Amino acid sequence: MSAPATARGDGPDDAPTTQPWPRGASRAATMRISDVLRALQGEFPSLSPSKLRFLEDQGLVVPVRTAAGYRQYSAADVERIRFVLAEQRDRYLPLKVIKDHLAALDSGAENRSPVPGGVVRGGSASPGDRPTVRSLAALAAVEPAVVQELVTTGVVRPGPDGEVDAWAVEITRVVAALGEFGIEPRHLRPLRASADRHVALVDQVVAPWRSQQSPAARTRAEELATEVADLCTRLHAALVRQGVADLTP
């Protein structure tokens, strides 16, 4: 959690111990909600804008507000969010206890390195960081033939230069897990088509904002896209689980 601006320890005369944990992490608030989700959803797939707002309501993270009222986060904020989510997932700690741990880390009563995770960037990864079809098999620990079939069936869609996004790694890993049950990439075309229809729904919502040129409108478009996509994903999961429940009364 970033402390209020007066206590962030950014001034030249501030002692290192006054800086909230994690010390040394950048406190420049340049990351939007979509950037935070991009940085953390690989480790915490269920993270959503509403979850970030809930953590803010609980006092576990305090993003900076722009003049237009939009939230912006720093790399230090992201590390604190990662800490909270990891403590919940791995140690099943309630938020009150986690908040006490953060307070102890801030005061220096506890000492802990940031939770290992992906590199936090203030935006999208640079092109050189993106995986390619050729590297995807190694990154996802699958045979190259699996990747080729995913590309052939359209489940994974590389760009003209052969690059894929970070989601392609997760998609490939999930497909490999489904393969243990005899489900092959060719069986997954309907899921790809369903996802495309969800994206079209999201596009309908954000199109009016995306067409505007102001930075505030673009930020709002990204926030809406993430939130509506999360709701579509939750609805799809609920519908599938409802159907599966009927299979196993």
Automatic annotation (TrEMBL):
Annotated CDD domains: HTH_MerR-like
Keyword ATP-binding found: no
Entries under InterPro entries matching the protein: DNA-bd_dom_put_sf (IPR009061), MerR-type_HTH_dom (IPR000551), MerR_fam (IPR047057)
GO molecular function, one term: DNA binding
PROSITE patterns (UniProt xref): HTH_MERR_2 (PS50937)
Keywords carried by this UniProt record: DNA-binding
Domain spans labelled HTH merR-type: 47-104
Pfam families: MerR_1
Region entry Disordered, spans: 1-27
Protein name stated in the entry: MerR-like DNA binding protein
